[in-house]
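Re: the request from the purification team.
They wanted to know what the chain is likely to look like in 3D before they choose a buffer screen. I agreed to run a prediction and write the result into the notebook, where they can find it.
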Amino acid sequence: MKGVLSVEEEVITGLERIMAAFPQKVALVYLGEKITYGLLKELIYKFATGLYELGIRKNDKVMLYIPNCPQWLIAYFAIQKIGAVPVPTSPIYTPYEIAYQLNDSGAETIICQDVNFGYVTEVFEETPLKRVIVTNLVDLLPSWKKTVGWFFDRIPRGVVEKSNNVHLFMDIIRKYPASPPKVQIDPKEHLAYILYTGGTTGVPKGVAGTHSGMVSYIKDYYPVIEGHVSEGDDTFLLVNPLFHIMANGMCMGIGLTLANPTIIMPVPNVDAILEAIQRYKVTMLLGVPTLYRMILENDRLELYNISSLKYCWSGGDVLPEEVFNRFKALTNRAIYQVYGSTEVGHLSLSSMDQDPKPKSLGIPFSTREVMVVDPDTLEEVPHGEVGELLVTSEFILDYWNKPEETAESFVQIGDKRWYKMGDFVRTDERGELEYVDRRADVIKHKGFRVSASEIEAILQDHEAVIGACVVGVADEKVGERIKAIVVLKEDARGVGGTELIRWCRERLASYKIPQYIEFRDMLPKSKVGKLLRREIRDEERRKQA
């Protein structure tokens, strides 16, 4: 494919080739407005120049605290262009959550939406922050569209207090030329991002990736999609959040670096998604199982023409066979899988040369080596038998500032260090992976990977709680609902489920809040005092059965 990248290059290099070759071609579509590759390049370079003039230098960390919008991509590539390191995070995180990540990553700059500006000011003094850059979802839209949106109160707006430390995104774009400094970096050593994922000790872990590491798995897409995904003639609808590695990689791998226009959705509204598919004749869609179920259950589905869809991918959770079959019956299109993790990057895609099976994850990419082992003995199991999936690659790094969690999540076998995925799979004779189950401490809720231990740590911070166990309860609509089993101190008085849910809501993003809280006198533990979360999970399964 013409878009082939090299692991010797920076992430933006392949995009720069496309921007130079097709300046008039549409790169992004956002709320009805089109941004060409030529304009995208100009905006990235202007913002990169502005960041440098504001004092941001090589290796500095910059947090991205905004939802899907063109500004996200402009900022992401601009940060990398000057050798700094983006730290993408969820725009619905609370001050408690962003303060931890700011302190852990050492980010001195944050780019936020105006509606989140209050959260940022709340934590400014207790973090390394030196400057804030503020944007609104409609900053890049024409004035008349913004006026109409504000008149009908359709655009969320927040109050921004200006100061020497506060800068507006559009002021930077208007003020600085598209001439960023040339910064020399080593793609194999230099970080392209730090993403945060759930922690086994109750706090999120920073996962760093180099430029070469990110390019490696984008490059690995090409042999799988060649002959199916075009270079410039397909249209990709981006619904999943860009702060998640799945959407980030797919946006580059099948969208921007192949000159395929990308439709960006700021909010995953099903009717808006169906309207976009119909209006722009979308051929490629990425979603989570919950999204595909919501599409199938939309009572206005027959009003939309979605026949343009050619390829649909699902990731972030196991795809129920019932959803797979119903979607194929409705659209005559199969749903393919994209599989990986924040730690290892993208690991595999379902083969596109044949109809995929619902739980088939495809053959692992060439830059990643896998092994399926008995989790107790770490001995490799034969093809067809279930075991835990281990992955190794030269591009997998330690957790950021977390040596203990690194030691717990990796294992040395022979002369190689392997990451324990925690997912249980089997392989066939071709080496294709089939998903079977996952470890007990990761809950899949609405496509998000929720760390049970993170919620447990928050609950145990409450003065009345002595122990907590969080598990997922199967639910066909959202994957799993979050349930907490809590043990209170003997002298606790007047503390109930409502109080503990409020406690969590003040400290966790909305998708991490338990839907159920059950109180018990004790929790099951091993002889060495380790919480037996799987035992409670199995108990919940038996209740449902």
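For the purification team: DSSP finds 16 helices and 27 strands in the chain.
Please add any questions underneath this entry.
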